[in-house]
Design goal:
By secondary structure, the chain is α/β, with parallel strands linked by helices. The protein is 52% helix and 12% strand. Helix 15 runs parallel beside helix 17 and helix 28 crosses helix 29.
Amino acid sequence: MTDTGRDLASLREEIRRHYLPDEESVVRRLAGTAGMNKAARGRASGEAATLVAALREESRAGLMESFLAEYGLSTEEGVALMCLAEALLRVPDETNIDALIRDKIGPADWGRHIGRSSSPLVNASTWGLMLTGKVVGRGKTTEWDVLGTLQALVRRLGEPLIRAAVGEAMKVMGHQFVLGRNIDEAMERASNMEAKGYTYSYDMLGEAARTGEDARRYFLSYSRALAAIATGAVHDGVHANPGLSVKLSALHPRYEYGQRKRVMDELVPRVLALALHAKNARMGLNIDAEEADRLDISLDVVEAVLGSRDLDGWDGFGVVVQTYGPRAPHVIDWLHALAARLDRRITVRLVKGAYWDAEVKRAQVMGLSGYPVFTRKVSSDVAYLGCARMLLERADRIYPQFATHNAHSAAAIVEMAGDFDGFEFQRLHGMGEPLHDLLRERHGRRCRIYAPVGVHRDLLAYLVRRLLENGANSSFVNQVLNGDIPVEEIAHDPLDTLAALRDVRNPRIPLPPQIYGEARRNAKGWDLTDPVTVADLDAARNAFADSSWIAAPIVDGEQLDGDHRSVVNPTNNADVVGETVEADEAAVTRALDCADAAVAGWRDRPAAERAAIVDRIADLYEANAPELMALAAREAGKTLLDGVAEVREAVDFCRYYAMEARRRFADGGRIGRGVFVCISPWNFPLAIFTGQIVAALVAGNPVIAKPAEQTPLIAARAVQLMHAAGIPGDALHLLPGDGPSVGGPLVADPRIAGVCFTGSTETARAIHRAMAGAGNADAPLIAETGGLNAMIVDSTALHEQAVRDIVASTFQSAGQRCSALRILCVQEEVADDLLKMLAGAMRELRVGDPWQLSTD
């Protein structure tokens, strides 16, 4: 391998190592990378203030700036508009349109916005929305009595008029942010701005492909767009011509790390075909950035495509880098090294990022150690400056494209660049036009417009992302026209803000392990989209790929012997996972006697001690997670994704019940009913098994546990860990075996004070009868039995999101969970399209060995 090759490999490791780093060190280092001295920073802030002042002139106000000045996400009305825009254009039937308008517009106070905007269009929209709101929210009163006559008129005309008015308002909004319904219309509209010196990067609207047919449709859409745009690529230089932006998630229905082989085999040729088309047309082709969990595989695709010698001599291949992620500077270094190795020049579009809220929530749900994005906006702003400096310094192999609507970011880049002009600014169509006009007028800088193309129905998800990006209180676009905020504050230097911070990481956003506060730690997660995590987990699991376990009755801490039965892997009967010894009548009797004798001693232990032991069980589960996941795969046929969920749910049960015990039993109130029997199912052999047991134990009840016949091995290992955590042998007993031989005698014993059971309704009724027959009619039976889970999908739902959740709910855990989706109710008007997409998504699922990450 060449030195350059080793450099690329080490740079990829740097990228992976900074997935969830310390925010403080990364941001402080990027602040230094920006490399601006005091005088340069002063000039940048001064120019930013000049730009903001100019933007506040009435003639300089753009529609988005005017709109967000009135309807930011901090207002009830702004949220209502976003919800309405996100769903309205999907709804085909008048009844639901009327209901949606009533729900989202009726409760809001539109009157207070009348006349406050400098934009006539925004004011006109406010009047229409206020009239609509007054009609559909009939009980609401405002001071605008002059409108009474008009309201009465609209009431007489009825809701069809309202429906038409709001529908047209949403279409007007769509027209402002989408350049054209198709590429020909978009190019025609673009001609006016091109005549002024702007260039374009077109983006074909649409969400991620869910089916193979979706991916083919998007590929053909991109191909047709390239052919059309090529007619306008009349310049020799690629950067003077229009270009196209593509989303890799639109070109493959399983664009994810777990399906890497499929992605490399199927997606790479598609992207290469588009790149060759763009090369032949002397155009640019940019790969858009998406969620953080797709970054690593996107770089694999980029390297494979760009490595084709057929692309030699073309400088138009581009990659988008998001600076709200701590990996951004390392990605830039890697891209520069890749371009050098291939003797190419590539483009890099620098953006701040579009998925912040989703990234934060995903990290919390998954229990990661940190966040793949910064927790403060100022961190993203500083990182943007540091990365901008990196791009300018690497212009030998990188053509920088700075996408920003922020006056200070733009002014700082102008200051950094000096006389160098080998870069361009970019903005979104419908946003930032006044600022970019000023950049061209005052500094002669090239500007390109990122222009969405598509029908209004495809606008919705895109528009919501744009509103979320720019509608927050701290957004420059939101603040720029707010006269209550001084110009100097809006044009402030983020490096000064950073220097004044004691903690760079935002303390108001707790790290994922701490989201439940001090009383309970979140269960540790394993991100199966992170190559480092997957490699470490695979190495740890592989130690148990051929291991053999034994499950035998454990009574009073002693493992009993008897006849052995082999336990085989349900997906590979040649794999003998271990052996089990099933409990006989003597073992059942001994366990009952011992547990009954232990009632007083365990019940009288302080609740805090019992809770501490249960917390230690959670810690031991996490420490032994690879072994437990290996058992889940080999004994229960669980995929790696489900194995992670199994361990995390078991840990959550432990920590939740320990927390509740401390809270509920702190005053020493009555606890502990007596001996509990816990009978668990095979489909959640660790999570439910653990949840039943620790709930009973932490409340002061000795437990006799009977695991499912199919999964005794993981239950036995769990009981060993529970004993190791400090549960006394006489307080927890394990009795493997079948229902008639073990479960039946246990629940029929009069000494049993309660039963926890998960399984069929029929078995639950049989247990209830047995308890009553033993004189235990008053003992609690806590039974979780089967049901029919339903989902209702109406026309306001985005099909791609609905299908994603339908597939997850139906097929994760092979559908073997009581909460799995069983009944899907779909509004008739949209049923055909949704069911077609669902069938296609189901065809993309992969059946196979659950040990493999690629198996669904």
